Amino acid sequence: MAELDGATLIARSLKQQGVEHMFGIVGFPVIPVAFAAQREGINYIGFRNEQSASYAAGAVGYLTGRPAACLCVSGPGMIHGIAGAANAWSNAWPMILLGGANDSFQNGQGAFQEAPQVEAARPFVKYAARPDRIERLPFYVEQAVRTSIYGRPGASYLDLPNDLIVGKIEEGDVAWPARCADPPAAQADPAAIERALDLLRNAERPLVIIGKGAAYARAEQEVRDFIETTRLPFLPSPMGKGVVPDDHPLSVASARSDALKNADVVLLLGARFNWILHFGLPPRFREDVKVIQVEICAEEIGANVPAEVGLWGDAKAIVGQLCAALRDEPWSYPAETAWRKELAKSGAANRAAVEAMEHDASVPMGYYRVLAEIRDQVPRNAMLVCEGSNTMDISRTVLPNYDARERLDAGTFGTMGVGLGFAIAAAAVHPDRKVVCVEGDSAFGFSGMEVETACRYGMDITFVIVNNSGIGGGVPDYDRAKPPPMVYTPEARYEKMIEGFGGKGYFATTPGELSSALKDALAQRSPTIVNVAIDPKAQRKPQKFEWLTR
Ligand SMILES: Cc1ncc(C[n+]2csc(CCOP(=O)(O)OP(=O)(O)O)c2C)c(N)n1
Ligand SMILES: [Mg+2]
Question: How many CA atoms, within 13 angstroms, populate the side-chain half-sphere of residue 412?
């Protein structure tokens, strides 16, 4: 009978458990794991920094519902990988962090890159373990994968000592667990479904808020049916965009502040009342708002605002229950109500203010002009990645999504530097689609070197850098001997970076240059950078609650 090494056991069991992608950087002691992954048919992508690789692993988990692995060397590599585990923890996305570790028989001796890795991972993962025997590696991999996707998704960590990776075992001595099934989709209590519908029927100012939990649950068909049937006004969270298309007539996203502030009954679909939704509290919400909460994590129900009705389970299953109950007893929110009129009025006023800025042809350009040009040129099924401060916030309103899981951004953790890893993850999952990655210049700088990764794998990604020479804005004239904390090099030519790796770069300062650069860039089927110099003083449209945002 054949002998297998630990690296093969790890890779083979990952593949068996539905892990299709592995991102990382090789070195001691994980080189054999990367090679084994390739042999076992896992798509291995070598990154330039483990942070980006770990962000990419979380994004794959969100996009596909099965985790990707991030492979790190011991010590500093694994520490970099915690960035993605923490990002996945905050976003509730599954991923597997694999940290190489020193030989277990050198523990405590000051071994090469020895570090308390399991302890370091622990607060950010649902599961952290150091496998104890080679033949039990598949057992640990199954535990890590299952824990990451069952219940509220999150990261798992496996600590892999060198002696386990290179150690050998007779194939017959290995116990292979079965492939863990996709998580069971739990339905909510039928009595609670009735109470939820009663509450909605009696609401004067109902609102549906669609979160990325609904996108993760692949609930788009059910949510669309529900919105079509009930005719309820809805708005998406930043990554809930596209579950129902942004151009749907019942979307009140352009009246977001007023919709949140005045709703009397809110149906939360896979969204949390955290900072993104202003905790569900006054002054952004009514004191007496009644909440129906559809949530996979029981402990989340009632967080910050007590839920009038808690619907605990899988968003797809539960919205399916709501739709089934509505088929038995049809109901829709009336077509003519004061609430609809108010929302329409507020939305129209906001859209008019934004439209003027979108058409503004002055040079230097502002955000709205640039983002409107991107909107007008990207293919309808493009994967959109957006990060930055103003760049990201404005992109949320200007760049529409038409389908679920087509937008990735800084997310619940507000992490800058995720964009390039996310874009690479999106290209890995959807190699047939265009990925457009819209980056603030600061956001881009966190992991700009991953442009080389995108070029090496010939990915169809257009990076657009909205360049205001700084964090949230530059300073046109400053003392070069003492740059202010938020500035970066004025008019930095980031597009030149990609030329060193065989990609095409463009620099644009006027609407005309931007339009033709984007046209050419999007026509390529390989990585491009469009670096757009905008007014360093350009800002977002004044917000009603500016003092409460970041
Ligand atoms: C990891 C991390 N470090 C720092 C920050 C603080 N931060 C918030 S937004 C931002 C960058 C915003 O600038 P940019 O990406 O250029 O977008 P802009 O607002 O200028 O369009 C930074 C550094 C963060 N959110 N995450
Ligand atoms: Mg900037």
Answer: 20
Terminal Cα-to-Cα distance of the chain (whole angstroms): 62
Instruction: Ligand 1: list residues with CB < 6 Å.
Output: 388-391, 414-417, 440-443, 466, 468, 470-473
CA of 332 to the centre of ligand 1 (A): 43
- Closest C-alpha among 278, 283, 254, 282 to residue 268: 278
Which ligand number lies closest to the CA of residue 445?
A: 1
Q: Which atom of ligand 1 is nearest to the CA of 445?
A: 15
Q: CA-based angle 84:88:89, to the nearest 5?
A: 115
pTM for this prediction? 0.98
Average pLDDT for 542-549: 58
Which ligand ends up closest to the CA of 549? 1
Distances from the Cα of 481 to the Cαs of 106, 295, 477, 478, 484, in angstroms? 49, 53, 12, 9, 10
Closest by CA position to 238, among listed 214, 219, 262, 265: 214
Instruction: Give, using CA atoms, the residue closest to atom 9 of ligand 1.
Output: 389
List, for residues 89-104, the tens digit of each pLDDT value.
999 999 999 999 999 9
Task: Give 105 Cα–ligand 1 centroid separation in angstroms.
Answer: 43
Please check whether residue 81 is in contact with residue 30, taking contact to mean a CB–CB distance below 8 angstroms.
no
For residue 412, report the distance from its CA to the centre of ligand 2, in Å.
20
* Cα–Cα distance, 543 to 548 (Å, whole number): 10
Q: Are 439 and 465 in contact (CB under 8 A)?
A: yes
Res 548 pLDDT > 70: no
Query: Residue range 84-90: average pLDDT?
Result: 98
CA of 538 to the centre of ligand 2 (A): 10
* Burial of residue 547 (number of CB atoms within 10 Å: 0-12, 13-18, 19+): exposed
Q: How would you class 429 by CB atoms within 10 Å of its CB: exposed for 0-12, middle for 13-18, buried for 19 or more?
A: buried
What tokens appear for 468 in the block? 């205001």
- Token pair of 176, please? 């292979």
pLDDT at res. 545: 62
pLDDT at 144 over 50: yes
**Residues with Cβ < 8 Å from 242, sequence gap 6 or more?**
215, 220, 236, 401, 402, 403, 404, 405, 406, 407
Q: Whose CA is nearest to atom 4 of ligand 1?
A: 416
Residue-wise pLDDT tens digits, 448-488: 999 999 999 999 999 999 999 999 988 878 999 999 999 99
Mutate to test the pocket of ligand 1, among 55, 367, 389 (most ligand atoms within 8 A of CB): 389
Residue with the smallest CA separation from ligand 1 atom 23 is 471
Query: Ligand 1 pocket test: which of 365, 442, 537 has the largest number of ligand atoms within 8 Å of its C-beta?
Result: 442
